[in-house]
Structure prediction request, 629 residues.
Amino acid sequence: MNGQVIENFSAPTAPIHVLDDALVNKIAAGEVVERPASVVKELLENAVDAGATRLSITIENGGKTLIRVTDDGSGISPEDLPLAFARHATSKISSVEDLFSIQTMGFRGEALASIAGISHASIITRRSQDQQGWRINAHESVLEPAVPTSAPVGTTVEVRDLFYCVPARRKFLRSDATEFGHIQEMVLRIALAYPHIALMLSHNDRKVLDLPAASDHQVRIVEAFGGEFKNQLIPISYTDPNIQVRGFVGLPETARATTRFQYLFLNGRYIRDRSIFHALKEAYRGLIEPAAQPVGVLFLVMAPVAFDVNVHPQKTEVRFRDPNLAYRAVLAAIREQFLQRDLTPHVRLSAGGASGTDDVKTQAAQTRQIIADFFRQPQADSSKIDFPAATAGSSGSAPSSMVSQPYRAESHLQSKAFTPVPLPSVLSQQIPVQGELEPLPNHFMQFHDSYLVVQESDGILIIDQHALHERIIYEDLLARVRQGPLEAQRLLLPVVVSVAAGQLAIFERVKPLLVNLGIDVDVFDSGSVAVQSLPTLLARLNPTQFIRELLDKLLETSGRITDEELLHEVLDMAACKAAIKAGDPLTPDEIQALLRRREEVERSSNCPHGRPTTVRMSLRDLERQFKRR
Ligand code: ADP
Ligand code: MG
Prediction:
């Protein structure tokens, strides 16, 4: 095989000659047309460019035998019709300048030529001003003369037997179902970008998609993604002189395991861009679990000169003049919304009474499991942390602080199950309160020494005490760190922690950040470091355990972590260790303090790891559950 190739290179079999059109088209098709879905994409884009408001897409056998796209757009004049299939024939640009101010989806004038080079293709078209329609057929780049025919206004392009004359390509096609899946994805992209266009898609005579023209993007997104996204999307909007960001992102609870529900459009064209998707993910930091993927459909508008679409044959990747502009804008657009909102998820109750209760049960069980898993991790060894010992796990027994609840002065009785806990340092701090605060609810209860149930005006909240406290400490630390170095408390005796050889180098890199956090650590000898001080706020930390874990984390990321990410890591770890645990009984005063802080801190709906701290059940939900409505 190798020998053959070398022989071909060293001994060309023919003199240099210009390739004929049919062959050029086939080669070009290799770039533009990878699979049936690429044809669908080109035909749909042409229809959009022609101003269609209604599109109908008919597919047979995964697009291998038939792709037909019918639009109600402008149509093509009989004179232009033969040119439509010609290479570099386009009505969309005519000068180099145009190339840098593209407003249309297509402009290269090679799609139809390429497609016609590898299939039996035909166009039927009529403009509104023409009495009759015209039809033209092409077979492997050979055009038949156009003939008059009756046709509605608009254009139908039909592509049969794709790749029939390029067996090497045909071999690489996947199953009909897979190819159709790719087609569906292309149709979805157009559907999301152009909600006002009605879309119909059928496969082997089965209607797969039927989207009526929608009044706005949100309606279309819900129709395309599924009803479960109804009322779950947050509109975002950001404008500056260089960029406009619009779109919808899902509430944190809608986050998925995959990036399937992430779409990005630049001036109406679907694109992929790692950096912008990273901004989307970054905006959800601490609101969803690290492995989860947010839902988001983002529309960017930028001046055509600010980016170049001519870097990718299928135009799905672009090059930005300022690569950070879009990143910053998307992050800002989403963050602004999140800061304004209460992101506490509602308990999802199903319509049916009994099964609904099960849902609540399952959810509670899941929450318990998450907490259990969490505490099974090494850092959860609460015995090593200087924090009031928890009473033995109370699950199964009556809620330990039941007697003191609902909290009213007269019912606030001590019971033997009720062990008062000294107020954790962060809770006890006097935090200046700005503005008027809502009066605190006075009906609340701690269950299983782990959950707080709180009455609200229109329902109840169920709070995971550990997760909430974690978030509170995290936000406090973050705010304090941003103001300057944390107040440190020198340890009576330095604590010497042995570390692996490779960790020392990384350690040097993070030392300045640690000092900022009030953690003063020096290299002690070639195999250990000495902790000299800890922040007053985190006096309860076990220094050995904390430093070890931190260094392990750093080694895991082999130091490739940004300062900002490192800061979050450290705060995460610190908050988790310093927070009250599931199993810690709380006094009513402590509960009050927690609830008060809940109102004040940002992102109190989720713990720093992204798990919810709070779920909400409205009276409506309950009434529905008990079939009162
Ligand atoms: P491009 O879209 O890059 O211009 P194409 O090969 O896709 O090149 O199409 C060639 C030309 O055919 C377009 O410029 C347009 O004038 C015309 N055309 C193609 N499809 C349609 C359509 N559905 N409706 C109206 N005109 C069309
Ligand atoms: Mg085109």
Notes: Residues 42, 45-46, 106, 111 surround magnesium ion (ligand 2) (CB under 6 Å). The domain at 485-578 is CATH 3.30.1370.100 (Ribosomal Protein S8; Chain: A, domain 1).
